[in-house]
């Protein structure tokens, strides 16, 4: 009986791996690369307002803002919103603003009721924006000088209303890089961002490190008002853009931007507490299903080859080979080290553990804690989009 169950599970795993490999193989090839966009120096590009929310970013913010100030873009406005920082962030920002008049620094002392701090900071900063386009980006993203000019050029030529772009994630060690690679595989499989340009598709995407949107469109969709309590605000901004019928596309800018992500597994565990549960719309059954799927499809096959035999063993060998091919394909796309593919089962196990912990913490405490503010699950669940 047990052997029959393992056989059927192995067959299901093979089918699922073939399916995931196929959609990623076909889908990733459809994502255009920013480096292929030509920029003409004599072209007049519209004014862009860059809005950066920042809280306790003293470690990375100076490097990130210097890269923004060095963008090869003539008509640029940079607005940084200090959201109640308790470290040296405000001091660093004020010193930089005193040296460069292109930098406007806004300080928030109190958070209005019914808002997540970052979401409020972005809308607060957008109210001062004077550009035809607004770029929402994080306080630790470092960009090459030609990134914005290429992005705006493509946005104009392709008549795009919302343009998110992927960046490279820098990790301090191999295991975290493996986890970043694994996380990307899950996210791309779930979102399928290559389908976003099609009005008939329900796919949508938004990326916190680079969400470029036409100001007129941003105002028409109600700004951040409808997602004021969404920890996954970047993704949900993309969703409301798509729901309102505007054109959206994602580009690959991995060669032109990078962000230093988590520095340790502990930091990643705490960081994902705020949005891992939100990603499943706070549905306990769906979160448990996702955890079970990771364990049965991405972790158990590596155990199964040591406890099975015959056809079942060969099927699980096929599963492991297919998972390896998926990882290699994803590593090639994300410019990750191929050796990180070897860490896939361990990374999947850790991510399943983080998600399990997040579920228990959120449910047992009845909410999330983010930026020193506690939000109840009841109010978070009510902010559906």
Report what the structure shows.
The chain is 48% helix and 14% strand. It is of the alpha/beta class. It has two domains: 2-28 and 268-382, no CATH class; 34-167 and 207-263, Spore Coat Polysaccharide Biosynthesis Protein SpsA, Chain A, CATH 3.90.550. The chain has a seven-stranded mixed β-sheet, sandwiched between helices. A three-stranded mixed β-sheet has the order 5-10-7. A two-stranded antiparallel sheet has the order 11-12. The longest helix has 27 residues, at 2-28. The chain is globular. The chain starts with a helix and ends with a helix.
Element layout with pairings:
Elements (H helix, E strand, L loop, with lengths): L1 H27 L19 E7 L6 H9 L6 E8 L5 H11 L3 E6 L8 H10 L6 E4 L5 E2 L3 H11 L4 E5 L1 E3 L3 H18 L19 E4 H6 L12 H11 L7 E2 L4 E4 L4 H7 L12 H21 L5 H25 L9 H22 L1 E4 L2 E4 H6 L3
Parallel strand pairs: 1-2, 1-4, 2-3, 6-9, 7-10
Antiparallel strand pairs: 4-8, 5-10, 6-8, 11-12
Helix pairs in contact: 1-10, 1-11, 6-11, 6-12, 10-11, 10-12
């Amino acid at each position: 009986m047990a052997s029959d169950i393992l056989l059927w599970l192995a067959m299901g795993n093979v089918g699922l791996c073939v399916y995931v490999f196929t959609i990623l193989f076909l889908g990733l090839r459809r994502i255009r690369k920013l480096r292929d966009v030509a920029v003409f120096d004599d072209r007049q590009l519209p004014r862009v307002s860059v809005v950066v929310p920042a809280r306790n970013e003293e470690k990375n913010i100076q490097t990130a803002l210097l890269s923004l100030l060095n963008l090869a873009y003539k008509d640029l406005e940079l607005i940084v919103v200090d959201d109640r920082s308790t470290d040296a962030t405000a001091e660093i920002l004020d010193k930089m603003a005193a040296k460069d008049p292109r930098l406007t620094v806004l300080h928030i002392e109190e958070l209005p009721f019914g808002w997540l701090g970052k979401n409020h900071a972005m809308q607060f900063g957008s109210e001062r924006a004077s550009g035809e386009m607004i770029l929402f980006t994080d306080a630790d993203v470092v960009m090459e000088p030609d990134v914005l000019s290429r992005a705006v050029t493509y946005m104009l030529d392709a008549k795009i209303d919302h343009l998110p772009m992927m960046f490279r994630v820098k990790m301090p060690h191999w295991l975290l890089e493996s986890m970043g690679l694994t996380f990307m595989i899950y996210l791309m499989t779930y979102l399928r961002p290559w389908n976003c340009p099609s009005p008939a598709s329900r796919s949508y995407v938004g990326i916190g490190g680079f969400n470029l949107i036409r100001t007129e469109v941003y105002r028409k969709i109600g700004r951040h008002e409808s997602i004021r309590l969404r920890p996954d605000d970047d993704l949900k901004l993309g969703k409301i853009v798509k729901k309102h019928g505007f054109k959206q596309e994602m580009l690959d800018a991995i060669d032109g931007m990078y962000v230093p992500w988590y520095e340790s597994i502990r930091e990643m565990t705490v960081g994902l507490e705020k949005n891992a549960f939100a990603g499943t719309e706070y549905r306990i059954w769906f979160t448990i299903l996702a955890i079970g799927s990771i364990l049965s499809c991405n972790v158990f096959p590596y155990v199964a080859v040591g406890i099975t035999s015959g056809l079942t063993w060969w099927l699980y060998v096929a599963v492991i080979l297919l998972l390896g091919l998926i990882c290699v394909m994803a590593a090639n796309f994300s410019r990750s080290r191929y050796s990180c593919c070897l860490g896939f089962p361990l990374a999947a196990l850790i991510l399943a553990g983080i998600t399990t912990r997040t579920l228990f913490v959120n449910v047992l405490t009845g909410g999330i804690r983010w930026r020193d503010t506690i939000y109840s699950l009841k109010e978070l669940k009510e902010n559906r989009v």
